[in-house]
Amino acid sequence: MSSIYTLIKQPHITEKVLLMKEDRNQVVFKVAVEANKVELKKAIEKIFGVTVEKIQTVNVKGKKKRVGIREGKRPDWKKAIVTLKEGDSIEYFEGA
To answer: Do the domain assignments include residue 91?
Structure first.
């Protein structure tokens, strides 16, 4: 098991995620590829002090990109969609 601070890499912020946060009380994080749901639940509850109801994980394949004649691929990554208990929230963006 990795450290809880290496499992969660960063919040994934898009317009769709902001709507999910308002409507369904869900937040999305980019997480380590080897992380599982049980480890992620413990890490999020300990770091942010919230109660997690459900976690969905998605393995995202990296896109193929080309610059001139050279072709490459962005890395694969994993995201976790976390449903929080009613009344709980994670404030990672509102301070600015």
So the answer is: no
Mind listing the pLDDT tens digit for each residue in 14-29? Answer: 999 999 999 999 999 9
Question: Which domain, by its residues, includes 9?
Answer: 4-84
pLDDT tens for 35-82 read 999 999 999 999 999 999 999 999 999 999 999 999 999 999 999 999
User: CATH number of the domain that 78 lies in?
Assistant: 3.30.70.330
**What CA–CA distances, in Å, run from 21 to 6, 36, 43, 53, 86?**
24, 22, 19, 14, 11
Q: How big is the CA angle at 52 (ends 23 and 54), to the nearest 5 degrees? A: 70
Q: Does residue 90 sit within a domain?
A: no
- Supply 63's token pair: 């896109």
